[in-house]
């Protein structure tokens, strides 16, 4: 597995991953190329967006943002916000752990105190993944489980 920072020309491949997740009921947000570019590659609050490739095919990504005033996640400004997306055919292979190793370094370099993930209650794989890498549940609101991870310098 090869990990690298996302580039503008990754938007199509990201959209493909989102579309595959949507097809198996694991994504509810938009899956367009424009959405991938605006939300995961070029977003003003991005700290990092790492991608995982196998045989030059993008099979996963993880974005880390610094929450901003009025963010749609209802997360306190300054806290890290994470999102992880793995192609359904490549799940349970350690890709998420590999991505998080890079994301955690980015969080430390950015001086974040903690990172928050919001996962839908029916996403057992996502809940298990975040729990396995050290995130802990602190709240459940409107069908979303809120988990936090303390970032150590």
TrEMBL record:
Keywords: Acyltransferase, Transferase. The keyword Transferase applies. One of its GO terms (molecular function) is acyltransferase activity, transferring groups other than amino-acyl groups. InterPro entries: Acyl_CoA_acyltransferase, Bact_Acetyltransf, GNAT_dom. Residues 1-153 form the N-acetyltransferase domain. The keyword Acyltransferase applies. Pfam families: Acetyltransf_1. PROSITE patterns: GNAT. PANTHER family: ACETYLTRANSFERASE, AMINOALKYLPHOSPHONATE N-ACETYLTRANSFERASE-RELATED-RELATED. This is Acetyltransferase, GNAT family.
